[in-house]
Design brief:
The structure holds 2 protein chains of 2 kinds. By secondary structure, chain A is of the alpha/beta class. Chain A is built from 8 helices and 15 strands. Chain B is α/β, with parallel strands linked by helices. The chains are: A alpha/beta, B alpha/beta. Chain A binds chain B through residues 22-23, 26-28, 30-32, 36-37, 39-41, 68-70, 95-96, 199-206, 210, 212-213, 299, and chain B through 1-3, 197-199, 201-202, 204-205, 210-215, 218, 220-221, 223-225, 228-229, 232, 240, 284-285, 287.
């Protein structure tokens, strides 16, 4: 594991960053599949439960993006004082993914010990672009949630407070693999779950849901139960840690795929192989648009390629809480505070 | 699914037509109303609400319509009317208050009505939604596979008619698509001062239908979402709500000082003007050449200029006909 980012405390307390995305879970997959809407009220409720859970562990302070949906503010009201001290970052959010990127970069600079995101895989991606080696606690509020943590947010909050304050022995975080896409000399973008080459010419409504459009994919961090392109990669066999899987779609082996919530189908895989971190993969000429973590994002150019690299760190809630059970509880002070808003 | 080239080009052509139409009307509207703004003076009397910037919502929806589908729009209707293919000459004549207009010059720019294509609009906020629900009910009762589309603004989503319409549409499983044009301002009231939630698409699930947010003012994004929503309605799977974040480049009405929006905000809209961004993209993708783009501009401008000439050369309604056509 590489050296973590330098940490600084805030008012003498360790910092946990919080970024909530109001736009997650609202795209076209509500129409083409059975994806649910996770609206602002529901996200605020998840955040409130997370914050309350944090008070079960040692004291800390939360630095949060003041999101354009007002979710964190709503969540604080819901907690009725049962939340850690919380301060807002000096960012005027406009609801774009730039908010997430900038907030993550700022939290890295402020020395946050963990970064909680509330959204989907795209939200995680934007956060990692702002903070490539972040200690991530991604709370699932998206569509596919291939990487995000799907547990009760109160427990996630508790585990976060333990991990962020170092009150668990051993390594609470698993290292992810990232995929960095280069489409020209100066620009690069990061994906955490998959990079997919699509034969259509448009980013359009962004989401991916039509198998006929797929040319190729590079997939990492694919759990067997993950939904989306990750389900195709996982169906081909386990992907070892610190590796990614390259897939070229076309005539060949037929694989059952769960493309999204309520979207079951099959897709043909022409070839696939597993590559270690450090590998560089040139994208096929048939790829016109590159999708990152389920969203069409980039226009391909002749030199477009993907680099498989070491990525951010993902909190293991179960490892953290299992370690807690082996620790003398009297040694861990509770962090329950009045929900002070410091600024 | 690849989008047909002719759809891509038609969307751009229509956007060019709409934008030029709004620019010409703006110029003509103001010509004789200054220095002290006299709303009744000049070639185009009365109010004027222009839709420059909101073109993507209209052009992205229309390629999926078929003859007989019903459209209702708002006090800001020109982009929707043009995209649906209303007779441009008669539409322009109506705006100029001429007897050759769609309503014999008696409805004006907020009350454009047509039977073929099936289009209506109104200056009453949210009025079009119950009307669209009624049209959808008729289609269902008559066993037709037509759909109704209701365009409305984000301010209208706080009107009772919005909630009543969505409820009834879902209850009776009607073939209607509700399209919210969120330009962030209800006249001068910013959305966060009027609406308790961030996105009106969130309201859809409360009424038992899917809601989708299109966060970008992009005709292709609207095209993809509208295609699915309209196909769903046409297949008998019921209503849905689409919310598009769009840009109203100018004030709420012509004569509006628009002082409630900062210069920085207005500059940001100009920098992401969908007409420019989309046109550039078509050229980059090789779907249009620069010469082709210019030809579209010349052709569309010509059609608009011709419609304006038609309107200007049309007679005024006769005073003795004042009570004709205004009662049903």
């Amino acid at each position: 594991m590489s050296t973590p980012s330098p940490t600084q405390d805030h008012h003498g307390l360790p910092i946990v960053g919080l970024i909530a995305n109001p736009v997650a879970s609202k795209d076209i997959r509500r129409l083409v599949g059975l994806a649910r809407v996770v609206d602002v009220e529901e996200k605020a409720n998840l955040i409130a439960r997370l914050l309350v859970g944090m008070t079960a562990g040692p004291p800390l302070v939360v630095l949060a993006l003041d999101d354009s949906g007002g979710m964190v503010r709503r969540a604080l009201r819901l907690t009725r004082g049962k939340a850690p001290s919380l301060e807002f970052l000096p960012i005027e959010a406009d609801g774009s993914e730039r908010d997430t990127h900038d907030a993550a970069a700022m939290l890295r600079a402020r020395g946050a010990r963990a970064l909680v995101t509330v959204g989907g895989d795209g939200t995680i991606r934007s956060a990692v672009e702002g903070w490539p080696d972040a200690r991530l606690v991604p709370l699932a509020a998206g569509t596919n949630n291939a990487v995000a943590i799907v547990h009760e947010p109160t427990m996630i909050g508790y585990a976060t407070s333990l991990a962020a304050t170092g009150h668990v022995p051993g390594d609470a975080y698993d290292r992810l693999t990232s995929m960095v896409v280069h489409t020209d000399d100066s620009e690069s973008s990061t994906a955490v779950v998959d990079v997919v080459g699509v034969r259509t010419h448009w980013t359009g409504a962004r989401a991916l849901w039509e198998p006929d459009d797929l040319v190729e994919a590079v997939v990492a961090n694919a759990r067997p139960e993950a939904v989306g392109i990750a389900s195709i990669a996982a169906a081909l066999g386990p992907i070892p840690p610190r590796h990614a899987r390259y897939i070229r779609f076309g005539s060949g082996r037929t694989v059952r795929a769960i493309f999204g919530p309520g979207l079951v189908g099959e897709i043909s895989v022409a070839e696939y192989h597993t590559v270690p971190e450090g590998t560089r993969i040139r994208l096929a000429s048939a790829t016109r648009v590159v999708a990152l973590d389920g969203e069409r994002r980039l226009i391909r150019n002749d030199d477009a390629h993907v680099e498989v690299t070491p990525g951010a760190f993902l909190l293991s809630v179960s490892k953290t809480l299992a370690a807690r059970s082996r620790t003398d509880r009297e040694d861990i002070p509770s962090g329950q505070h009045a929900g002070d808003l410091l600024s | 699914m690849e989008i047909p080239r002719d759809h891509l080009v038609d969307m751009y052509s229509t956007m060019v037509k709409i934008r030029y139409f709004e620019e010409r009307l703006r110029e003509i509207y103001f010509a004789d109303k200054l220095p002290a703004f006299d709303i009744g003076a000049g070639e185009i009397p009365g109010e004027m609400h222009l839709a420059a910037g909101q073109e993507p919502v209209a052009v992205g929806t229309m390629p999926h319509l078929k003859p007989g589908d019903a459209i209702t729009a708002t006090h800001r209707p020109h982009h929707v009317a043009i995209a649906q293919g209303l007779d441009l000459n008669r539409m322009t004549a109506e705006i100029f208050g001429k007897d050759t207009g769609l309503g014999h010059g008696k409805g004006g720019h907020m009350h454009l009505f047509s039977t073929e294509p099936n289009f209506g609009c109104s200056g009453i906020i949210a009025e079009g939604m119950p009307v669209a629900v009624g049209a959808a009910l008729a289609f269902k009762k008559l066993g037709k596979d037509n759909v109704a589309i209701a365009f409305f603004g984000e301010g209208a989503a706080n009107q009772g008619a919005f909630h009543e319409s969505l409820n009834l549409a879902a209850l009776w499983n009607l073939p209607v698509v509700f399209v919210c044009e969120d330009n962030g301002y209800a006249i001068s009231v910013p959305k966060d001062a009027s609406t308790a939630i961030a996105d009106n698409s969130d309201r859809a699930s409360a009424y038992g239908m899917p809601g989708v947010l299109v966060p970008e003012n992009d005709p292709v994004a609207v095209y993809e979402v509208a295609r699915e929503a309209i196909a769903r309605a046409r297949a008998g799977d019921g209503p849905s709500l689409i919310e598009v974040r769009t840009d109203r480049l100018w004030g709420h009405f012509e004569g509006d000082a628009d002082a409630y929006r900062s210069d920085e905000f207005k500059d940001s809209m100009t920098s992401r003007d969908s007409l420019v961004v989309y046109g550039d993209r078509l050229v980059e993708e090789g779907i249009l050449t620069t010469a082709g783009r210019e030809k579209i501009t010349d052709t569309m401008h010509g059609e608009v200029d011709e419609a304006i000439d038609f309107a200007r050369n049309s007679p005024d309604p006769a005073p003795e006909d004042a009570l004709l056509h205004v009662f049903s």
